Structures are given as C-alpha cells and as structure tokens.
Amino acid sequence: MVKMMMKALVPTMFLLFLSCSLFDPRTPADPSQGGVVWQTPTSPDIVVENMVSALNGASVLYLDCLDDSFLFYADTSDIDDYPTLNFSDWTKSVENLTVGQIYSSVPSDTTIQAEFLLVAGNPDPPAPEDSVTIYRQYTIILPGAQHSPAFGIAELHMVEDEDGLWSVGEWYDNRFDQSTPYKTWAVAKAVYR
Amino acid sequence: MKHLILLAIPLAVCLGFDFSYSLTMDQIKETSKLTNSFTATESVSPQVSLSGGGTFSAERTEGLDRFTDYRTGNGMMSWRPISGVEMSTSFLRSVSLEDRYGDRVRDDRTSSATGSIRYAGVDWLNTTISVGLQNIDYIRSSGDTVTTGNNDGDFYRVGATVTKTVFGGINTSMGFTENRSYGNETENFSDGLNARLSYYFPEDYRGGSLNAQITGERNTINYLDSLQTRVGESWGHAESVELPELIPGMFISFNTGWNDTNDRYESSHPDSTIDDPRNNDRYDRYLGSSLVYEASEDIELSFSFDRSHQDQENTSIIYGTSDYYQLNEFTDDKLLNITLSYTPGRSRITFQRLVELYSYDTEIENADTLMYVNDYDRDEYRELLSISSTIPITERLTLLCSMNGQERSLYYLMSSQSANSKRTSTYAFNPGYRYDLGRNWKLSQSMKITATYTNYLFPEESGQSDRLFRRLDESFSLSRTSTDSTTLGISHRFTFNDQGTLEDGLYLRTEETLNNTITLDAGFHVSRSVGITPTYSYQYYARNRMAYGVKTVDHIHHVGIRSAIDAMGGTLNANITRSFYSDSDRESYWKANVGFDLRM
CATH classification of A40-121+128-190, choosing from 3.90.226.10, 3.10.450.50, 3.90.660.10, 3.40.50.720? Predict the structure, then answer.
C-alpha cells in the first residue's frame, strides 16, 4: 500500500507543480515611455552598441550584455587611491545593484550619455571565435552622479555561447592615463556599492 | 629572483630533492603572459623535512602599455620530535610590481617569518599555534602623487579542530580559528567557528543520512590613521536529509539553509561623532528537493525543485549631503527540472522539461524627500523542452540528434521600463553522426539549425519591431589523434547567421555573417617521445551590416605547429600559430602557447 502511494507521489508532484501558479510571471504595467534599441548580439561590437543603447536609455537591458559569470576589475590605481571603496568580488549581481542606483540618481529631465570609441592601435579582430578581447575608450556622462563624466578605457573580454550570441565575460577597467582628473566607470559605480 | 631560481634548480636536483617545475607562456596578439613555478621537498630524516618553492609571473599588454610582475618565494623547515607534534619555521616573500605608460604605479613587497607548533597527539584533536613577524613596504604612484608606506608588525594564528563520534553513530566536528595581525597602519582580526554533525541510518534503512552544519565568522580591519573600522560578519546553517531507499529505485533528498552577512563601517574613536552609515546586509535562504525514480533498468525519472531567496539591504550616502537612503533588493529564484532518461543497450534518449521564474523586486527606505526612485522590478521566465538521443547503429556508427525549444521572457513591471519587456523563443535542431574507421581514425559530422524570434510585449509603445535571428552551424572532421594529441586529418567548419526585423511577416535583414574554415593537420611522430603537428587553416569571413551599408570580407591564413615532446621526465607542449590576412592593410599576428611540466 505504502509502495503504491509512494509511486503515485511522482506524477502527483508533477501535476501539482504544473497546475499551480508558482511559475506565473506578473503582468507589467502599461509603458509610460519608449524602449531602447536592441539587436541580437551576434558579434562583440553589437554587444557594445547594445550596451550604449541601454545606458543611454537607463535600461537594465544593460545587464543582458553581461554573461552570468561576469566579473568587473577596477584599475590598480583606483583601488589604491580609494581604499574605502569596495572594488572586490564585482559580479553581475553587484553590477545590477550599482548601475540600478546610478540610473535612479539621474534627474528625470536629463539622460545618461554614453559613448564607446575604438582605441587607436587596438582594432577589433575581424573574425572573432569563441572568445575575444576588444578595447573601447569610453565617456559616460552621468547627471546627478558623484563622479561624472566617467572616462577611461574598457578592456572587454567577450565570450560566445553555443548559439553564437556574445556577451561581456570580464571587464578590466583602465584609467586613460595616470594624470587624468576624470574618474573611471569603476569609481563612478563603486560609490553606490 | 631570476638568479635564485637559476641557482635553486640545479642545487635542488643535485641535493636529490623531490622537484617539480612548471612553465607556461602565452601570446595572443599584443598580450603576452609568462608563468613559472617550482617546488622542492626533501626529507632529511624521518623527523626533519625541508621544502621550498617559488613563482614568477608576468603579463605585458602593449596596447595599454601595461606590465605586471608578481614573484613569490617560500621556504619551510619542519621537525617532528615526537609522534603527533610538529614544529616548523617558514618564511615567505612576495613582490608585486605594475608599470603603466612607462611609470611604476605599484611596488608592493611583503616578507614574513613564522614559527608554528602543531599538536595532533590524539586522533580527535588537531591544534595549531603560529606566531610571526611581517614587513610590508609599498610605493604607489598616481599622476604626480607618489605614496610610500609600510605596515610592519607581528601576528599570531590559532586554530583547533575536535572530531568525535558520539552516541555510537553521530559524527561531530567543531573547529575554531583566531587570527590577529598588528601593523602600524592597519590591524586585521579574524575569528571563525564551525560545527558539523552527520548521521548515517542503520543497515535496515540503508542510504539514509542526516547532515547539519553551522558556521560563523567575523573579520575586522582597523584603519589606524582614520580610526575607522570595517567590519564583516557572516553566519549561517545548512541541513540536508537523504531518505533511505524504502521503495526500490526511489531516492529522495531535501536540503535547506540560510546565510546572513553584514558589512559595515564603525568608528573606533571613543569620542567620535563621525558616523559612516554605509551598511550592506544580505540574507540568503534556499530550499532544494530531489527525487530520482529508477522505474526499470532502462528508465530513470529525475525530478528536482529548487528555490532560493535573497534579501539585500544596502545603505548609501547621497552625494554632497549627510543624508542616506536604503535600497532593499529581493530576489526569488524557482527552478523545476524534470528529466526522463531511456537507456536501452548503449543508446540513450533523454527528455528534459525545465521551468524557471526569477523575480527581482526593490524597496526604498528613507527616500521620500530625496526623489529617489528605482523602477527595475522584473520577472524573468524561462521554459525549456528538449529531447536528445545517442543511438549506436552499429559497433562503429553512432547517430546523434537533439531538438529543443526554449522561451525566455523578460517582464519589466514598472511603466517607465515595461516597454522593454520581450519574449525570446529559440528553436534548435541538431543532427549528427560519429563513425569509427579503426586504427584511431574517426569521422564525425554535425549540423545545428537555430531560429530565434524576439517579440516585444508592447510593440507600439516600445517603438521596436520584432526580430528574427537565424543560424546554421556545420562541422566535419576526419582525423587520427594520438594520445599525445598529435593529429593527422582534415576538418571543416561553416557558420552562417543573419538577423533582422520581422514585421507583418516581412523579414528585413540588417546583418549577415559567413565564416568558413578548412583546417589541415599533418601530424607525425619523429620518435616515440616526440610528436609534431604542422597545421594550416584557411578562413573566409564575410560580414555585411546592411543597416549601416558596411561590408567586409577577410581571407585569413593560419599557419602553425603543435608539438608534444617527452624530455627529462617532463612534457613540453607547444602550440604556435601565425595568422596572415590577404589584405595587406591588416597586420598579421602571433598566437602562441608553450607549456612545460617537469617532475623529478
């Protein structure tokens, strides 16, 4: 009898899980403003274009540009110069928190302006496969943020998934040069961590 | 250090030390890395042993004009005067250097000497006490500012573990650690405590077990110049139950636990009115269950449900004010995974159904007057249905096939973000085969066709059109590979993908990419211990971004050599490739990897 009941447990649990609303997503509110431009990230440069589009639209689609194993590394000089800011163990979850807070601090009548340019002498590889490193000189104007504009060079280690879609696996942040008065993206974000 | 290594290697060999050495060198375009490490151990007598080691690693990135260099050296002498007691003395030295744009921006040097006594005189107790001195010097440069300093001091470390079996079958273990380091700039304290308990059910209830664990840890750093203290605390517990196999073939287990962590700043000055409200609290809860039912020799049903919940409370200061707000983040991840496997003979057919819902919510405290909003609450839904099979038709021929459909939906709940809500549906078909031709020759071919549709939930409000992404990936290989990876054969890979907007059934392409690579490997053995594989690849890569009117075509020739050489008790592996573009405007580049492992 017990054996029969236990065997019946398997299909019962299966049906229970499928019939309950445990996996029903919530309904979004009607939009009050437009969305951001998004392309299927079939190459590393499209990932950067999506990132710029998401930053400028203060959209968390920015996080879709990052691999689940994403790690962010600050410039050595930033770590030394800002000992009370926490740059360690910077995962996608931390990026979610800090970027969300930066977006929230932008006054409603202004917008973020991000620009990522090719770095002279470091062109993108023409035929990337599996993984690749690309460089971008960035300027990110962050109205309302403590440090704006964020200015530096991003060394982006891109990874490709089995469906051929690219994302940022690691971001090594670099100062443009040691004497620049502008703060990097790492410092701009770390204030909110 | 270089001279030390050069001296240590022959010296160690001469003295008859057990010696191991590892070397790797990588170069990809303008980035090159070198890692060297060695260890040497020697038992002078049953009571006395010596050991030492060192590492040297360096990385140069030409494009960023960056050079980093890290070196360590260590040595230890151990003496066991009586059974269960070990006395040891050790030294450690590390150097970390970094140059940027031609200037030294970091020069950290750390040296320490430690004396330790370990007691494990009875099988249930293990204790270690260490005391030592450390010397830390650093030079840091930022722009025109150069900072020098040192953090010299002393330290001690204490640790103990007690392991006992009580009541005839319950295994228990308790451990604690206390580490103290007193420098003239910072004081670092760390305390830890953990307890474990496990019980395995008696023979009549074989397979059942109970496990429980609690842990606690506290770390503090006192910054003596600012009288500020950074405190990190964590504590948690975990339990798991595995039920006995009451019904043949049915295995059920549960696990649960929670972890709490807190990071904050405190003022260590007794009269200080300075308060730093930065605070980060995190609470994690999780629950998992698994049921595996082996219905027969060929059929297995696996059913698992996991749920994890995280609550994170972060207090941040508003720039330019003494005000602060608290952002609370809540995440809830629910995952149901059902797998049905049918394994008749050497065949395997697997059916998988997966459903996941990840919810992210935020709540702001103390933000009413600060105009602070956070509109990023969202639900992420994922559903996967797949079937895969591996069917050996004959002893030599195996057919492979998989099909899957996946839906990923992203729902932004707040009106300011909801226009970005979208649903992505991916359908993939992946057939292939493997054929064993004998004498280590293998033939394989596979193809994968993928179509991904992206639909916006609010197409009119978002201003975005639905999208389609298509991809065809085909690969073929006919080769013979030896155990040392020497390869003779031919392989081919072809990839085509395009994407564009899809509106009223009309597909308007914005980009297409074609990548076609043919590789010839001409591997041979010079002798039993030396294998060499010359290799040549021709790659055709074309990309057309119709939306921008930009089209590029590249013909790339990759010429390389791989080798595997057994020598001096070690193995030298080298893989060097030079890539040339037909377009003379593009610079050719090196991709090289050399590894050497030696054990004597």
Answer: 3.10.450.50
